[in-house]
Structure formats: structure tokens, C-alpha cells
Amino acid sequence: MRRLIIIIAAALLVTVRPQTPPPIVLNSMIPGDVNVTATTVSIDTFQPDFDNYSWNTFIALNWPPGSDGNGDPSKKIGQNGDNDTVWEHYRDVSNIFLPGGAKPTWNGPVQIPDVCKSLNKGNLEVVTQIGKNLLTPTVVSAMSQPFNTGPLIDQNGVFTRFQIVVNKTMFDYILANSLYSKAGQKVFTPPVNFTSGSIDNNGKTLVEGAIMVKAAWKVIAPADKARFHSEDVLVYSPASANPKYPARCTLKTVGLVGMHIGHKTQSAPQWLWSTFEHVDNVPTDADVKSGKLKAKYNYYDPKCKTCPVNQIPPRPWDPTKISAFHSQIVRMNQFNLPIYANSAAARNATAQQLLRGVNPKSVWANYQLISTMWPTDPKQPFGAPAPTFLANTTLETYIQGMVPNVSSNCIECHNNATITVPVPSDFTYVLQRAQ
Amino acid sequence: MTRAIPPSIPILDSDIQDFADMSAALTGFQSSVLKPALDPVGLAREYYIFAVTQVGGTAMTTLLNAYRAIKAQTARQIADTLLETSGSSPSPQAQLAQSIVAMWYLGAWYVPGVLGGGGFAPPPLQVISSAAYTNGLVWRVMQSHPMGYSPFTFGYWSQVPAPLSSFGVNTGNGGGQ
Amino acid sequence: MSANTPKYDVVIVGAGVSGNLIAKEIGLAGKKVLILEAGLPVPDSREEYMENFYLALAKTPESPYPALAGRQGSQVNPVGELPKPATLPTPRATVLSLGQSPETSYLVQQEPFNELHKNDPNPPPPQNPPTDENGNVRGLQFSSTFERNGGGTSWHWLGTSLRELENDIRLKTKYGHGEDWSLTYSELQELWALAEKEIGVSASVAQQEPLEVVGLKYPPGYQYPMQAIPMSMVDQAVSSGVAGLQVPGMLDGQDDTLYDVFVTPTPAGRNSEPYDDRRVCAGNTNCIPICPIQAKWDPTVTLGKALDTGNVTVSYQSVAYNVAIDGQSATRVDYYEWSRDAGGNISKVSKSVSAKVYVLACHAIENAKLLLLSNNWKGIANTSDQVGRNLMDHPLYLTWALAPQPIFGYRGPLATSGIESLRDGEFRKYRSSFRMEIGNEGWNFSKGDPYTTTMDFIQGTNNSNVNPPPGGSGQPVRLGGLKLVEQLNNIFTRQFRIGCMFDQSPLAENRVTLDLDKETGKPNHVDGLGLPRPKVEYGLDPYTMEGFRMAAYVCSKVYERMGAMEFTTNGGGGVGDFTYKGVNYHYYGAGHVVGTHRMGDKPKASVVDASQRSHDVQNLWIVGSGSFPTVCTANPTLTLMGLAFKSAKSILAALGS
Q1: How is chain B split into domains, by residue range?
Q2: Is the CB of residue C392 less than 8 Å from the CB of residue C631?
Q3: A284 forms bridges with which residues in the sheet?
């Protein structure tokens, strides 16, 4: 059996160790790759290792940063309830792919749109509305989906906002290869090959690897801050010709409701995909059918019996106005095997307990892993991903089915990503934004 | 889309493994392709259950036993024997084996013994599931992908595809594994 | 706003290519538009359509789209269980119902010989329809199909976005055949540029330059929106195979000019770069019937933009059945709003809507039907008597072969190149010309592969003709295991096909009418809403059929030159079978339905003008490929969208904006 493991592990490009360190740790070290500790080979035994990896990554990315941008080991995540995070000091894509293809910097001043300038008081972030598809007239979305699927609108008629950042490793590759501009991309010699993260035989990170984070933010009332990781940001809507509305900028408190983490690692040429949601987002389909509903959700009104479920808002979509239409979202089951939900539930319980152990009021205990997608056979182009479908209800709201090549599958969709000329972009849509 | 299993028919993991190994010999593919250790789709299980609901537990068990009796032989011998390729008129058991090959290749259930005519294949009873369609082996046989499900990237069609051996075909002369 | 002021500036019937484009243009100009769409709404995602496709027993163009009677594939006999048009609110022509009786076929048309005799105790040998004294073959089936749903038929267009040739639009002046168009080539060039931008067409003008010789011209410096789609391995094999090949214009000497045969890449409405927030083509080889990732443009893209204006509303499940006329003006559209319960019972409510301008954009056949239904089935906008007449398609002649070496079909978009170099010449005085589409899908279209050949080698049959009994006698082989893999690999990697599409003649007797009893005036067949069904009369003339003869010759020369073995077979007595000069041919429908409300300068001989505005009814536009006076040699979608831009402009002028 051991020989079988090693043969298969070799094919899998992961390092398998017989000892079992604590699976989820409160540590600021970002895992360089999954640490497979399973001693038998099956999805049932491997999925927990990937889910542990996801939680360890989530914890490390949300760790309070030190002056060098890395997690500060002298602090603990959530020790004061909420905290600034490492990933929020990563570079936002709107500050990498600049007008005219200008050369970006990792730490330099950020672009503040004109309409925001009067509101900006120093350090505020700018979070644009993406609505899962095309945003501004000049920039291509990093999240092209079949069907121009629409925005996610909360119970107050306000659009959910999205943000994409990349870590220094990923940024450095973009910079070094001039992939930040159309002109640079045109003369680039393929393939695009972001740095792969890796770990040593003891599970310690050797190389961080390229990481990209896509975050979904909801405007919240200051009174609700205790339940969310939140920030005060400039919520920006660029002007639009069709539908027609002017640029707008407002200062708002936003709460994190969804977080995608994409990580290129040695074991996963197709990347590892972890997705987290706020625990109050939506009921599951099973919850609705059994009537087991909470009093309040971020994107579901339990009192409305006639609201159409998971329906796209009617066009035109105008983020500068309060919408009469509120999204009524339910999490549909996309898992063909019980392990995915069971493993995530077990890991969520462990992680949330650990986080509350730091501070019972830790906002981070209000987040849950939905699942981790990983390639079971990296030799195949799609990598035979497990699970076969995975969606975050805030980010792939309207494709929660189980239809191959259409329903949400991180790897299948990102496999189609290219740069601005038809060269595959190594599973990221950010490079399409080059101007 | 999974069918309900009639409660009277037991589904044993060992039967599914034998079914997969037998299918590997019949189809010419590696067993690790049809039923990998890490198996997100679970096609062998889905196909086994589907076939049993179509032909009944007895017919399937009889076929599996015929396979077990010769499983030490080469894949080629197993295929020729169970499919009765040198005979003039395949028995109902061989026709079941044919339908199993067709199921793996085309993702659909063809009623055993029903032939095509008029220039075309017989109509299948049913496409087993979307996953069955997108995992059909015939597309690997032609070094391509199912129509409607491409894992390749722009421009691949202007280049020669990867060799057949990279598509999971069992080119060795080993047993059904 | 008084009760007499219409709420809408424009009412459009049909949410397809033309309807959505015109709605967008009108909406962008700040005017109010209502689209009446007969069928179901555009779904929120294409999951349902893709699942329909994956599970379909027969992967026809219609297979993803709502059948309203259960998903195809749940029965043993897919044809036997087809939904009956009399029970459906929006039945339409489908591939599976071709050649069936009106009980199953929405279009009422002549059934072929084999169908009529299939239940005979001793069926006679198959026969093709006779040739009449003018050399015409009548009583043929019109084989193209269409959809009636949000987005329309072009959900399943291939994406081919060729421009017409200079002589295509002046066939009558130049060659004394057919009709001339009412636009100039340079005006069309402007309209094509607009359409190419809307769709997102990938091509390179430099690669099209060799076709100047057949009259394909671009304005200097013109650039397509995106770079060209690369040629497939199959294209490359055909291209090198035909190097140096020349063929005469006519086989019997009337045109001895030798025409070069060469391959050029096909401009296509599919992304070669991220465009319009849609992905780059991944070669899903599924353009027809549906692109899973929307790398190929479809009309729902434009519909989205129309809705974004905030000035466009769509009323789905709204079947127009009457356009009311008062003198020379249309005054309202009457329509049924229908719904259907779980048991399939249809209920309908009759409603009306008025506007300043009315646009019929519901497909060449449905436009004709609606015009003929109007005014108590006496028809409107038809002083020319041309409504429904001159029905044309590009009849498609399919040939297929095995290449001597693997050329790896079943990869890439369904077609990426063609032989366009035979589309024009002196011969057009005598016969239809044709383009040759090189297929990338092996024998999928030709023989239902890979299913047919796979089952042949598993079951020991020879439906594909590639599994003949060894030595010519006995039984075909049966294979398993690696032997099966190797044999199938050998066959499938060498399969390819060429489809020839002819600019068939406009004939007054090829027409769409209402299927009414001559004596009682009552409909012989109705749909689920009680509306009369369209009757189609169709046939081919010698001009068109001589084109087939030439095409068969050219294909055989191409295959011969490539060292390929041809497997084309044509039968008798079935849908699309006919005989010409003693040889059997078979045509498919290309899905290019044109001619039924043709444009022209003379109101007595045409239905609409160059802007697709009715000659008879001043505020009625009748748009789509139905306006084409000839079918020309390019696939029609690009041109019909170009015409829609022109119509939108004229509508806005009429609205006084």
C-alpha cells in the first residue's frame, strides 16, 4: 500500500508524510502548498488535507500585517475582534493595469478616481463595482462568464462590490515580464507561468507562490460591524455609457461576505482554489425545504415566500441607485460526494473554535469554508478537479448547477483565461485588464 | 443524475472494482483511467449501477464471473473472449459486454442486441448523464475532446494533438489492470 | 399622454438577430421599444440548454432549446415521441420532424416517397420526385429549421461571417439571372463593418486578399475587430492538397475558364481575444448547436445591450397573430400571451399594443405567416403578391472522405476555412455558384459519427461503410480492447467532409402560404394557439441543380488530389433526395432561410425597400433575411445584421429623431 501511495503521490506531485501535525494552526505563515497527510489514497482521505490547507491560508492571509507587509508573528488574528489583513496590502488589479499601460509599482500611490478625490482622506481603499462581468468602458473584467450574469443586490437594494488583489510573487512576475500592458503582452513569449508555491518534507513553506484573492464586499451598517471583517472604503462606480449613469463615489463601511483564494502550487499546475463565505449569507436549498431558516441573511429574506430564487436582477443594472429588486439567493447543492460538505463542516467547526479561542468576538469566526477545489490528476488539461462543481454564492451566484463546462467550476472556467492576445494566461483573468 | 438502486440488488465495492477492471480490458483503456484512486466523477460506480438496473443482477454477475475466471489473461484475450469477436453470432452475454463498451465509449446505454440500420447507429435508450457524455472514451480515442466540452485552449486545433498513448489507452500487453 | 398616444415608439415582433439589434439602436436613441417574443425567455444561464444538449439522443441544432414537451432523450424512439405541433404554443421546424406528416411536422409540406410508403405491406423501391417539363423538380422538402425563443435561431448559428461578393448583389445585371439588390457594395461595406463590430468578428483582411479575384473587396485600411482564427489541421491538409487545382466553370463547355481552387480562413463571429466581456474560443467543436462558453456571439448579447438602455421591454410568450392596418398605416399588433400548466394545457389571453412604428423580425417564414394571417387571413403589405414567395435556402450538398493520413478532425470550431474561390464567374449565367465549407467535425454531420462507426465496430455492422466484410464476403468485424481503439483512431483521425452551399434561384412557386382548405378557407392544421400553420412548397430548378453536379465534380477532384477516399452516398426517396441528369443527389438545409419578403425598388415586384420598409404600409418594417432578393453566396447572418442597422437608421428618421 505504501508503494502505491508513493507511486500515485509522484504522479500527484505532492509530498506525502506519515506524521500528522495539527491540521489547522493559528499561524501567520502562508502555506506554500497542500500538506497531504492522508495515508490512503481517496478523495475521502485527501479532501480534509486540502480543506485544512484552505483554512491555514485563510488565517495567514487575514493575519494582521507588520511593517513589511507579512503577517506579524507578535500579533494574533482577531485578537481585538477585527484587524487589518495581509491580503489587503496586496496590490489591487486596478493599480497594476494602468491607463496607457503605465508601469505599476508594488507600493506606490494608488489611483484615486476624480469623483472620489474630495472624499479621500488618506488611506481609504477604492472598491469598484464589478457585478461579475464587465465593469468600466476601458477595462475588461477578470470574471467573464457565459451569459453576462448580473449583479448581486443585497436586502437594502445595494450592489455587492468586488475587489481583486495579487500577492508580491504574482505582481513581480507580471512586472518582470511586462504583462501589465497590452504592448508588453503583444511581444511576450509564451507560456505564462506564475511561480509555484512549495513546501518541504515537514510541511514548512519553501516558496509562497503566486496568490490572487477576489473579495466580495457588502455595504453594512456600522452597528453590524461586530459580525464582519469590515473596512471603510470609497465605493466607486465608474461612469457608464450603456446603461447610462455618471461616475459616483461614496464613503461606506463594507463587510467581507465572500473570499476566493487562488494559489499556484507545485502540486497543482491548475492552481488550488479555496472559497469562503460569511456564515450569514444565504440558506442552503436543504434549509429552505426543511424550513430551518435563520432570522436574517445577507442575501435572502426568509419572510418572502414569493421572491424568485437565484434570479438575475432585471436590466438595466445601475449601481448608483438603490434597486427595488433584491437578490433572493439560496445555496444549491453542487456536490456529488458527501465528503465535500462533511469535510468543510468539520474544518469550519475546528477553525471557528480556534479563532474564538483568541477572542470570543473574533469576526473571523463568522466565516466558513465552502470547499477547496484541487486537481486530482494534474497531467490532464483540466486536472480532473475535485469537487466537480463549486460556487461561492456571492461570486458565482447564478451558475450553481451541475452542468459540465457551464456550472461553476473554478478550473474549467479559469482554463479559458487568456491575456489580451490569444495566449493562455495560466488560470488568471487579471491579465485581460491590461490597457 | 443517478438512478435509484432497486433495494434487492446489492452493490459491492469489489463488484464495482471488477466491473471497472473488466471494462478496462473490454475498452482498451487503463483501469486507472476508468476508476482512478482519486475519483471525483465516480463513473465506474454510476455505470455499474445503471447497467444492473437495465439487465438485472443475475446477468451482470454471470458476466463478471466469466471475467473473473480469465482475469489473469491479457487484456486482448479478455476482450476477445468476452466479446466473442471471432464468433459469428454473439451470445446475449457478449451483447451485454458490447453495451458496456458502448457505454464507456459514448456515455449512453445501447440496448444489447439492438443493431443500427439505414446508415446510422441504433438510437440509444438514454444518455446516462452529462458526466457520462463529457467523459466518453471515444473522444480520447480520436485524440480530441467531447463536442461541447473542450479542456484545450485557443488555437490547439492548428497543431497536432498529443499522442494516443497520452490519452489513457492501455497499450501494454499486461492484464486488465 | 393621452389614451391615443402609443406608449411605445416601436413594437418589434421577434427577439432574434434583427429584432434585438434594432431594439438596441432605437433604445440607445432614447426611444421606447417593446419586443413581442413568441417563445420562452432567455434563461439566466445556459445550464439548462447545455444539459438538454448533453442528454439529447440526437444532437440536432434544436436539441438544447426548449421543446416544451419534455427533454428529448427519455424515450427509445426519439422520432416517435416528438411533441405534436398542434399541442404546442410555439411549434417550429425541427430536424427530427423533417419529412414527417403534419401531425409531427410544424411546416406542412410534401412528405417524401419513403415516408408515404413506409407502412405499405410491400414497399416499392425508393423513388425521387419526377422532373417536370421545365426541368424543375417539385415536391421537395424545405429542410431548414428555426427556433422561436428569446434569442431566436441564431443561438445555433455557426458563426460564419463572410461578406458577399460584388456580383452577388447584381446577379441580374451581370449574369441575367435572379434579381439585383437595392444597395450598393460600398454601402454594404459600411453596414458589414457595423455588424462585424457588434458581433465581434475575427479575421484578417490580408488573408482574404486572394479572393479579390471573385469580387471580395474591402475599403483600404479596413481592420477586423479581432485577429483571425487559426486554420485547423484539416484545413491545412485540404489547402496543401488542392495546391494547383483548377476546375472549369461548366462541365459541358459553356464556361471553359479555369478557376483556381484554394482555401482561405473564414471570418467568424467568435472571439480570438477577450471581447465584449466574453471569453476566447476554446474549440469546443459545438458552435452548432450551442457554444458552452459564449465565445461565439449570439443574439442574447445584443439583447442585453438593448435592455441596458432602459428603453426596451420584452414581453415573452407573446405570439403576434395580426397586424391591423388602416389604409397605409399599421395601427396595432394583436397577440396571444400564453402560458402552459404542468399538464401541458395551454391558456391564452388576447392582447393588443400600438406604436408609431412596427417591425416584423420573427424569421423569414414566421414574418410571411404573420403578414398572411393579418387582416382576417387576407394578408397585408402584399400588393406585390411576393409575400411568402421566393423562399430560398443555401441547399447544402455534403461530401465526405477519409484522408490518406491522420488530419485530426473533431477539433476546433466546427468550420474555420473554406474554398471561396469558386463563388463567382461566367458560369453564373448557367448554374448556381457555391461556396465549399470545410468541416472540422469529421463525419459527425455526414454519418452521425462517432456513434455510427463506433457501434459498427462494436456490433459488427457496416452502417458507416468503413467496416465492410473482410474480403468482401461474410460479416463485418467486431472488435474490442486495444484493437477497437486502434481501428477507431485510424478511422476518426482521417475523417473529414466538405459542404457545398448553392445560391439557389428565387422561384415564385417556392413559397410559404397559410395551410387553408381551398373550399372552406379553414386551416387544415393549427398550432396549440389555434393559429393556421404555414404550408411550404419547394423545389429546385435546373440552374440550381447544375450547381450540385459541378460541386460533386469539384469535391471528387479535391479528394482525388489529396489522395483521399470518398465515401459520399446519395440515396433515394428520402428527405432532400432528388435526381438530376440521372444522378442522385441529396441536400440538407443550411438554416439560411431567405426571400419571403424580398426587397426591391419596384413596389409591384417586391415587398420592402432597401431599408426593409414596406412599400405598402408606411410605418411597417419587415426585417431579416426574408428581405434578401437572392440568397447570394455568403452565409446570411452578417448581411442581415448589416441591413438591420440600415433599418434602425430609417426607423429613427421616420420617428423624427
Answers
A1: 13-167
A2: yes
A3: A331
